[in-house]
Amino acid sequence: MPRSTNTQRTILDLAESLLQDKGYNGFSYAHIATELGVKNAAVHYHFPTKEALGAAVIQRYRDRFKLWTNNARVKDLSPEEKLDWFFSIYTNTRADHGKVCLAGSLETEFNSLPDTVREQTRALTAELLAWLEDTLKEGRDAGAFHFNGEPADKASLILASLQGALQMARAMGTKKFHAVVTQHKQDLLA
Amino acid sequence: MPRSTNTQRTILDLAESLLQDKGYNGFSYAHIATELGVKNAAVHYHFPTKEALGAAVIQRYRDRFKLWTNNARVKDLSPEEKLDWFFSIYTNTRADHGKVCLAGSLETEFNSLPDTVREQTRALTAELLAWLEDTLKEGRDAGAFHFNGEPADKASLILASLQGALQMARAMGTKKFHAVVTQHKQDLLA
DNA sequence: AATATTACTTACTAGTTAGTAAGTTGTCAA
DNA sequence: TTGACAACTTACTAACTAGTAAGTAATATT
Fold it and tell me: Going residue by residue through chain A (190 aa), what tens digit of pLDDT does each one get?
């Protein structure tokens, strides 16, 4: 029955990559089909609409983040190491052909996004913020991080700056991205 | 000869608004023509290609920023007031139907942008960064701002976070944007 | 009054978009 | 070995995309 059982996963991989590369309005079923060596309609067979495909990409991304943060490899890290791990996600995203944060990419086009994709974007952002807030609080309580104000506000600032820095790096080069990460460490650890 | 002499300016206004609302790939000549009450080809008469229109929008934005920052109203402000003025640009952008920073919007789609639009985006970002860096340096020398590391790095962090915060606010509401501004003041003035 | 120019409209093209309906083929279970 | 089903292909549609060529009408210049 299956000519290649992993077609569905490959479509999700390609869609995720294209989303981070060109944005939601910048990729098409034709792109995915061509790169997969398959016809347009085959993609529609696995994901009937672009809305369903977009939502599935974000859902998988959310599941992955949940899995990682609940795994002992991350859970048992110190606050500093946890933050370094979080930064490394963005560093790797940047290194991977100058890609951009999935949440940031979707938020830029938020006003032309279908409903379920909007809701998935909102949920993903909320989960990233919640984890960052917890880590920041834990680190300050442990005396590792130093900052004024609410952990929730600092979490918003850090996430927003990482999203923005990935985008800025496209126009200005990788140095600008690393500058932001460096500056955050200066601010938090001093 | 002119049925309405300000058509060109109105096109630029609409294009700028649509860019900040839907992104470069999210707006079309048809959108602009319809909202202007004019035909498709009339827009092409004023701006032969989408590339030319996009570049013209950014060029005007750059000219405006240069004019503002060179004007005594901004130039003679204290560093704290200058930063507040800069923040207010983004606050107003956010308040204006949840729009997004022009530079951030373009950077997200950078990989599918025509050459001259890319170059304009790079130039705009460089000018914003340069002004922020100068203001930060001036403020630290005057004892008004407190931060570790290089002013250039802190400028990158602040600009990236403002771009990101405008995007985040779309999915999460205005509060998240104000949280970022509040946190920056906490960080710089403490 | 004749001519040129500006600011358009009409009418089109070639390419791309998401999406669909109907047919085909390989594999597996009964 | 028949039939069901999964995973496609072929062939299409309606809507939209940027862009163009030719014509028109009002105004400005000579």
Answer: 444 568 999 999 999 999 999 999 999 999 999 999 999 999 999 999 999 999 999 999 999 999 999 999 999 999 999 999 999 999 999 999 999 999 999 999 999 999 999 999 999 999 999 999 999 999 999 999 999 999 999 999 999 999 999 999 999 999 999 999 999 999 999 8
Q: Is B179 on the interface with A (CB under 8 A)?
A: yes
Do B124 and B20 contact (CB within 8 A), yes or no? no
What is the CATH classification number for the domain harbouring A59?
1.10.357.10
Domains held by chain B: number: 1
Buried-exposed string B140-156: b where 16+ CB fall within 10 A, e elsewhere: beeebbebebbbbbbbb
State the residue range of the domain holding A167: 54-189
Nearest protein residue to nucleotide D28, judged by CA and C1' positions: B1
Evaluate whether residue B8 is within a structural domain. no
B110 assigned to some structural domain:
yes
* Smallest Cα distance from B187 to chain A, Å: 7
Q: What's the pLDDT score for residue A63?
A: 98
**What span, in angstroms and rounded, lies between the C-alpha atoms of B113 and A157?**
28
Which residue has 């999935």 as its token pair?
Answer: A102
> Residue B171 in contact with residue A107, Cβ under 8 Å?
yes
All residues of chain A having their beta carbon less than 8 Å from the beta carbon of residue B132 are none
Residues 2-41 of B with CB under 7 A from strand D: 27-31, 40-41
> Any CB–CB contact under 8 A between A1 and chain B?
no
Residues of chain A numbered 82-111 and touching chain B (CB < 8 Å): 98, 100, 103-111
What distance in Å separates the CA atoms of residue A71 and residue A108, rounded to the nearest whole number?
31
Q: Is residue B3 part of a domain?
A: no
Distance of CA A164 to the CA centre of its chain: 12
Would residue A35 count as lying in a domain?
no
What pLDDT band is residue B130 in, cutting at 50, 70 and 90?
A: very high
Tell me how far apart the alpha carbons of residues B154 and B136 are, in angstroms, rounded to a whole number. 8
Position A112, amino acid = S
